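Dissemination and training. As part of the outreach component of the grant, students in the summer workshop were shown how a complex can be specified as a set of sequence lines and then modelled as a single object. The example used during the hands-on session is reproduced here so that future cohorts can follow it. Participants entered these lines:
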Amino acid sequence: MRRGFLFACLLLPALLLARMLVPVASAQPVLNVYNWTDYIDPAVVERFQQQTGIRVRYDVYDSLETLEGKLSAGRSGYDLIVPTSEPSFARLVRAGALRPLDKDRIPNWRNLDPRLMERVAAVDPGNRYGAIYLWGTVGLGIRLDRVRALWPEAPMDGLDLLLKPENAARLARCGLAVMDSATDVLPSVLAWLGKGPDSTEAADLRAAEQALLAIRPHLRAIPGSGALVDMLATGEICVALTYSGDVIQAAARAREAGRGVEIGYVAPKSGAHLWFDMLAIPADAPNPDAAHAFIDFLLQPEIMAAITSHVRYPNAVPASRPLVAPAVREDPSVHPPEEALSRAFVPGTLNPAAERARTRLWNRFRAGR
Amino acid sequence: MRRALILLPPFLWLLLLVAAPVAILAGIALSEPAPGVPPFLPPVSLEAGWQGSFANLLTLAEDWYYAAAFLRSLVVAFLSAAICLLLAYPMALGIASAREGWRVPLLALVLLPFWTGFLPRLGAWIGLLRDGGWVNGVLMGLGLTEAPVPLLYSDAALYLGMVHAYLPFAVLPLTATLLRRDLSVEEAAADLGATPWVVFRTVTLPLSLPGAAAAFLLVFIPAAGEFVIPELLGPPEALLVGRALWGEFFQNRDWPLAAALAVALLALLILPIRLFQRLEDDGGSRRAASPPSRSSGQSLDMVP
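and obtained this result:
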């Protein structure tokens, strides 16, 4: 009895180890996808599985930090990831963590909007490593009913509403929030101050820090972007600086709940931070063939239209536009007007020292000191 | 020979799952960050030989930012452990003094929260404490307050979460110690005219000190490195070591500095453990000198 127990103690880990080291041969190919939370139409995945016979194992993250943390360790096991062009995609390209795409195996590549792809070429010359999946801006989510009730003539057309201390003080009672991301908030704050969004000047960063600290006492929370959607949708906060699609998702959820919570999105008129989420394949992906097939599948106009209709972020396949659900297609906060796009900026790449300075600044802001 | 055979499995276990990971961590702490997978240069390589540096450890010592995080973590851990100890002592004394048939069900009640996952329990606190949550609902329903009282993301919520999560770790060793204590000593004190309070203060309490120290440390050590509870319940201004480490690892992708922080935290926690061991040794020799205790047959030996 006792010997049997000891034996089991030794045998079991040995078996588990063997199981991990020896890949199990299986007839059905598997595609391991690692994507943002709430960022695809589940029916699309279902259709891909039926059409190709490839089983999709779908895993999610809610911050670029998590994605990069896993990928920098190597052997993540994922076949397809969706990093944001700046900073993660650019960094992964430089670190040699991505696999060049074989465009011959992605015939639907031609559906991509060349003007948008051009904007990503700055970090990925020749677009060798990624195709745009969805994109959006960073701006304000506003709970219109509460803000109007509290302050009928509130300036709801730009970042002044949140970043001017006197406005923040006035609205603090109904709940203000900034998403917890130095990389995705600081460029917008710098642009609002009239500085370069990529500035590494100490004086510019100090100005941004002072601007953030001035409104810090009025902030109810500095949550992750995932938690922020909930807070906005339930009406716990009424002004938030975050990703466009998150606000639009919160607005849709609030409408469904039908409790009179009315939410709108405003891109900063001072120039919006534009970002692109890229479809990319890790260098050590176990099944790059399936990943290529999946990218090609996603870039079909009707598939992209289904995704945009579902998650309310615009895509980079212009032919999908007429097929998008009308409510989403006509929503100017989903598809920003041409002139707003021309004023939007894509932040550049920072060196590690500049990154650290920004992280420090951010932590001081979080701490309120 | 047999002794060596028996010692081999735990020795291998410690080597494989404690010593080796710490050695790897220390190695990363001495390396330099570099873009790549993984994002650092190994401190020793076949071609370049030694290429590590002590810059990371120096940074920790020189930059007030990290020292402040360590200090704040130690304060939070100390207060959490102290509150747990204060709450756990009467609970443990009650359980140890209860009739034999009651002890196991009472201990089961202490352990019952572990049947639910850690995160759902924290989620429940968020649901209770948030502005639109139950507590504020009741307060506003009773007309005690007009606007919701901000309860979540405060120090109070932080300590509530810490104490709730770690209280069983304090109750168990205390109960074990109190069960093992020699009741005849207390009876003797009472026979000699001591009031119950004097008996407790001069006999029960000093005899239970090793258990109290174990209880304190079992809360203090995990609380010092705690990341999840302060993140979910605490105020955003509380930058603790856990958060600082997370920031270096995920935001700055500086694995070497994150590893250096982890090693420093480990070193910092070894100190109280050593102190505790000395206390245990003293207590042990004192216990060995006393006659075999009456209740030792049914003690719950859970002190590590």
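Chain A touches chain B at residues 9-10, 63, 65-66, 68-69, 71-74, 91, 94-97, 173, 175, 182, 220-222, 234-236, 283, 352, 355-356, 359-360, 362-363, 366-369 (CB under 8 Å). Students were then asked to discuss how this feature might be tested experimentally.
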